[in-house]
TrEMBL record:
<dbReference type="InterPro" id="IPR016181">
    <property type="entry name" value="Acyl_CoA_acyltransferase"/>
</dbReference>
<feature type="domain" description="N-acetyltransferase">
    <location>
        <begin position="4"/>
        <end position="141"/>
    </location>
</feature>
<dbReference type="Pfam" id="PF13508">
    <property type="entry name" value="Acetyltransf_7"/>
</dbReference>
<dbReference type="Pfam" id="PF18014">
    <property type="entry name" value="Acetyltransf_18"/>
</dbReference>
<dbReference type="InterPro" id="IPR000182">
    <property type="entry name" value="GNAT_dom"/>
</dbReference>
<dbReference type="InterPro" id="IPR041496">
    <property type="entry name" value="YitH/HolE_GNAT"/>
</dbReference>
<protein>
    <submittedName>
        <fullName>Acetyltransferase</fullName>
    </submittedName>
</protein>
<dbReference type="GO" id="GO:0016747">
    <property type="term" value="F:acyltransferase activity, transferring groups other than amino-acyl groups"/>
</dbReference>
<dbReference type="InterPro" id="IPR052729">
    <property type="entry name" value="Acyl/Acetyltrans_Enzymes"/>
</dbReference>
């Protein structure tokens, strides 16, 4: 495409974002696109024949930023749109940035200076609800939000209270000793994340108690092998992606971060 123009997307662009996802055989993810346009920065390139030719998201924190949902429509591949969107997002971030790369996207990210920090695997399925000998958890209410924000900032290493306040309005939150978990409906499945815990047993208890109504999605980093072993015995393994960063690494205690908020926001 000649004369590429990148613009900030608005709530009116959610259907076009969903069509772009479907074009690349991704889930349409109505809730995630709407949330990202609300709390992050979503940039897109309009297609001459209608809809979007490409899109990317940038979620800012006080210490770093996360890039996600990097998509180019199949009919506009290999025309430099991915590089243009990534360069725009990186310039807007102006500092350390992280992302999750598919095998197709990784070569571009490496050319832009990203390096691999590990990997992450997606698991889908239904949990049976069996929880013998697991620590107790309880539903969290509005009065518990300050404690959840404290636990999260301490483990994540940055303030993501805006995201968590939003998910508290439409998702579920549970508390345990030294940890918490969130879940929210995104299309046909319930996404479990973030999950922050002091140990694997607490993370498993939070996930089990949050997953009470149908299919779920878990994204688990390679830093949590025991947690992944538990998921692998109960859920279906899907794609593996590479965790990457540029201009420095994100802070946080990886031993306490069991699942991300989402793969777009990390």
């Amino acid at each position: 495409m000649v004369g590429v123009q990148i613009r900030r997307l608005t709530p009116a662009d959610v259907p076009a974002c969903q069509e772009l996802s479907a074009d690349r055989r991704w889930l349409r993810e109505d809730r995630r696109w709407a949330l990202l346009i609300d709390v992050a920065e979503v940039y897109g390139i309009d297609a001459p024949d209608g809809g979007l030719a490409g899109a990317v998201t940038l979620t800012r924190y006080d210490t770093h930023a996360a890039i996600g949902m990097m998509l180019v429509a199949a009919r506009y591949e290999r025309q430099g749109l991915g590089r243009a969107l990534m360069s725009h997002a990186m310039a807007a971030a102006g500092g350390p940035v992280c992302l999750r790369a598919t095998d197709n996207g990784r070569p571009l990210y490496e050319r832009l200076g990203f390096v691999a920090d590990g990997s992450s695997v997606t698991y889908l399925g239904t949990l049976a609800g069996d929880r013998p000998d697991l620590p107790p958890t309880r539903p969290a209410g509005p009065a518990d939000l300050p404690e959840i924000l404290r636990l999260d900032a301490d483990a994540f290493g940055a303030d993501r209270s805006r995201l968590l306040r939003r998910v508290a309005g439409f998702g579920r939150l549970r508390l345990a000793a030294g940890g918490y978990g969130a879940s929210w409906r995104n299309g046909s499945y319930r996404l479990l994340g973030p999950v922050v815990a002091e140990d694997v047993a607490t993370a498993i208890a939070l996930c089990t108690d949050l997953a009470s109504d149908g299919p779920i999605r878990l994204d688990i980093a390679s830093t949590q092998p025991e947690f992944e072993d538990w998921a692998a015995g109960r859920l279906t393994r899907r794609e593996r992606v590479t965790l990457m960063s540029a201009n420095g690494t994100a802070p946080g205690d990886v031993k306490r971060l069991f699942t991300p908020f989402s793969v777009a926001t990390d």
